[in-house]
């Protein structure tokens, strides 16, 4: 049985999922893990689905997570959680940002945004839900929402102390955004 851990991050283009995965992968590499990452942009420019898969452990042979293999599903957008739920293990953990980005069919009125997603998933799996967008607005920059989600993920997986995550932030984000992203990381950790 492998001691590797599998994290699937999902959301919508423009939410900073790729940067979030880069922060996560960089920190895990610094902590001494073998790390593999893959990303699927889809129609990201048009608000389409974006996923990244991060696998880490002593030795990881492939970056791909199969259905039913994710230890953690990290969702940046509520509806996307449902789309990727089949990838999580029955004993897995969902870390969910309660945030809605209506798709084109919803915006045109062709369909309604699904109701009860959070309640449905919370009734089936271990779930941590928080409102990263509101927290990011309180910090003064809504674009820090992704780093808040990373902070929550690190705490949920008990990874907050494996490496100095503030140093990882300093290496992965633009210099003028370092301080606010460090605050965002800490705020995310406080949500779990």
From TrEMBL:
One of its GO terms (molecular function) is indolepyruvate ferredoxin oxidoreductase activity. Residues 13-189 form the Pyruvate/ketoisovalerate oxidoreductase catalytic domain. Gene3D superfamilies: Pyruvate-ferredoxin oxidoreductase, PFOR, domain III. Pfam families: POR. SUPFAM superfamilies: Pyruvate-ferredoxin oxidoreductase, PFOR, domain III. Its EC number is 1.2.7.8. This is Indolepyruvate ferredoxin oxidoreductase beta subunit.
């Amino acid at each position: 049985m492998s001691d590797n851990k599998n994290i699937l991050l999902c959301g919508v283009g423009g939410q900073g999922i790729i940067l979030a995965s880069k922060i996560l992968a960089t920190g895990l590499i610094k902590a001494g893990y073998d790390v593999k990452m893959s990303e699927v942009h889809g129609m990201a420019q048009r608000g389409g689905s974006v996923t990244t898969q991060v696998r880490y452990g002593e030795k990881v042979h492939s970056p791909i997570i199969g259905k039913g293999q994710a230890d953690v599903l990290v969702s940046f957008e509520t509806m996307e959680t449902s789309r990727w739920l089949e990838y999580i293990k029955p004993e897995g953990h969902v870390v969910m940002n309660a945030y809605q980005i209506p798709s084109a069919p919803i915006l045109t009125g062709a369909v309604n945004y699904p109701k009860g997603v959070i309640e449905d998933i919370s009734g089936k799996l271990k779930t941590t839900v928080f409102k990263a967008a509101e927290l990011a607005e309180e910090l003064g920059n809504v674009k820090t929402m992704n780093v808040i989600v990373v902070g929550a993920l690190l705490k949920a997986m008990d990874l907050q102390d494996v490496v100095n995550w503030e140093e990882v932030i300093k290496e992965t984000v633009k210099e003028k955004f370092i301080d606010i992203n460090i605050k965002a990381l800490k705020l995310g950790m406080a949500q779990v």
